[in-house]
Design a protein that fits this description.
Shape: globular
Distance between the termini: 27 Å
Helix content: 10-25%
CATH class: Alpha Beta
Largest sheet: 4 strands, mixed
CATH superfamily: STAS domain
Number of helices: 2
CATH architecture: 2-Layer Sandwich
Number of domains: 1
Number of strands: 4
Strand order of the largest sheet: 1-2-3-4
CATH topology: Transcription Regulator spoIIAA
Amino acid sequence: MITRQGDCLQVSGRLTMETVSALFNTGLQPENGGDLVIDLAQVEAVDSAAVSLLLSWLRRAQSNQVAISFANVPDNLLSLARLYGVAGMLPLNQEPGISKIGD
C-alpha cells in the first residue's frame, strides 16, 4: 500500500512477487515540482521483486525528470540490492538516522 503526504510516498506492507505488480504504475510525480522521497520504513517483507520495483521507479522518475530518493530502506532490501550488484544505483536519502547503502 502507498500513501502520499506531499512529496513523500510512504510504502507499507509486503514488497514481493505477489504484490509489486500493482505498484509498478504508481504515479511518481511530485505535487509541487520538487524532489520525491519514497519512505520504506513500513515495509514488512521483501524479495527480489522489490529490487526490480525500486529500479523501475527510478527509471520512470528519470524519464520524467523527477529527482527521487529512497528513505528508511530495510536491511534485507539493501542486502538483495548488493547481491544483484545494483545497490550503488539507488539514490538514498542521506539524512541522519536513515539507512545508507554503505552502512
